Amino acid sequence: MLKVVAAERGIMPGVAARLHTAGGSVFLKGVPADDPAARLYLRERAANLALAPSVPAPRMLWCADIGGWHLLVFEYIDGARSADLSPGSPDLPGVIDTLARLGGADGALPCVTVNLDLLQRAAAELLGMKPREPWWGMYAEAFEGLSVESLKGETLLHYDLHSGNLLAAGQDVYVIDWSFACRGQAWIDAALLVPRLVEAGHSPAQAEALVAAHPGWNTAPADAVTGLGALWTMFREYKAMHGLADTRGFRAGAAQAGRAWITHRTR
Asked: Does the reported pTM lie above 0.85?
């Protein structure tokens, strides 16, 4: 007997459900093949096919294109919840251990520069508005110092680590939703987790100290880290002003965290 229970939804379109089957529970997600988000589901499928065995993630059990839908089925992690990234959280050791275990390589996934195209366009439009707040000059200088070439590499990146994509179950933390997976320098996942940690209540220095456990962090070019952080933050600044009304609040919170981080790195 099959029982279907709707799963908690994020901002991604499509369907998500827990399927109770005779053999146990699995997690199903899918999207119409003609939906603009279909490319992200195909990216997630490619990433899961490429994951190294050491990467802590629910395994993809099945995938198919049926009836005009892209469908993916994953292991269901019983009792899992979104990881708590706040200071003193018992989830933090597992999060940092999981971060250090990410990696691998696969030529089928796009370069990180594909993900950055939209961010660069938003940043250019934002800077073109010539706003008067003092931090815009800080963004512009950091952005100017970013060489996109310095981000290119062959490591498999998740690219979008945050509490909603990190599932805690006991002492273990699993990474889900590889929709923006790409190839690039290994330190990028660590860098993009920093503003999420700041948003959760850590100081920028504390957040950087936590991700320093990542094997690639200490070799990351300082200008590249700062520039990428500025680009990430400017995108959220832009979305906080011009995005969908029901997303502007959390975009503004993320932008504030990113701004604090870039200020820390450039003062």
From this structure: yes
